[in-house]
Amino acid sequence: MSEVTRPTLSDALTERMLELIRKGGHRPGDRLPSTRELSQRFAVTTPTLREALRRLEATGAIELRHGSGIYVGAAIERLVLPNPNMREVHAAQLVELLGARIVIEPPLAAMAAQRAEGDELAVLKGVLDKAGKHLRGEDAELHEANMSFHRATARMAGNSVLHEVVDSLLLVHGPEQREILQIFDDRRRDYEEHLAILEAIEARAPAEAEDRMRAHLVEVRTVIEHRLNPPG
After folding, report:
1. Taking every annotated instance into account, which residue ranges of this chain make up the domain HTH gntR-type (predicted)?
2. Which of 39, 63, 206, 209 is deepest in the core (most CB within 10 A)?
3. Dihedral sign for Cα atoms in the order 176, 182, 187, 190
């Protein structure tokens, strides 16, 4: 195979790695050839290959497991990806992100209610069962359960692109969401609002599920706005 040439060496090598994964029929979790084998295959040096691998890892296309090897990442088939270079969300952006969730997630809750099935409902119930066990200060575990609930609801709606949008938005302002738990300081109320959304989904009541999700997210935004603009 001919050597990849500069000046777009890293870009070209990244594309050829993706081509190897797709044409090889590899799925998330599949192990790929070793770094040495890939360097020989593409006729590039190991440092050059590692640069391309790091770029792919940043987008979730591959996973580098120390001492184990290179694996196809869970995000290889995603259409929407969070920015791997994001470091800080400014106040105005955070409010806009929450505004986006208010637009997107309530209709998805309605769609989830229309499609509610046994296995997916069991996932939602399991997530909230976990959340219910962490209402007394275990905020890291509670945050993860809360975010899992929103992700699972979006996934149940049946639109993979919108699910990826929600997943990306949650990832972008994950640290701020953890702060909300402390500022809102009513974990039980937050938990009960999630239970109410689940109840509407279980009852296959789309309008009610949509209304409850919207009310919940509007309340979250109100808390954030109050924190960013405290009364004088």
Report:
1. 7-75
2. 209
3. negative
Q: What percent of the chain has pLDDT over 90?
A: 29
- Contacts by 57-65, CB closer than 8 A, 24 or more apart: 58/84, 58/85, 59/84, 61/17, 61/18, 61/21, 62/17, 62/21, 62/32
3-state secondary structure of 31: strand
Peptide bond connecting 7 to the previous residue in cis, omega within 30 degrees of 0: yes
Pick the CATH number of 91-228 from 2.60.120.260, 1.20.120.530, 1.10.3720.10, 2.40.260.10: 1.20.120.530
Per-residue model confidence (pLDDT) at position 6:
44
Neighbours of 146 (CB within 10 A): 25
Angle at 224 between CA 130 and CA 166, to 5 degrees: 55
* Cβ–Cβ < 8 Å for 99, 221: yes
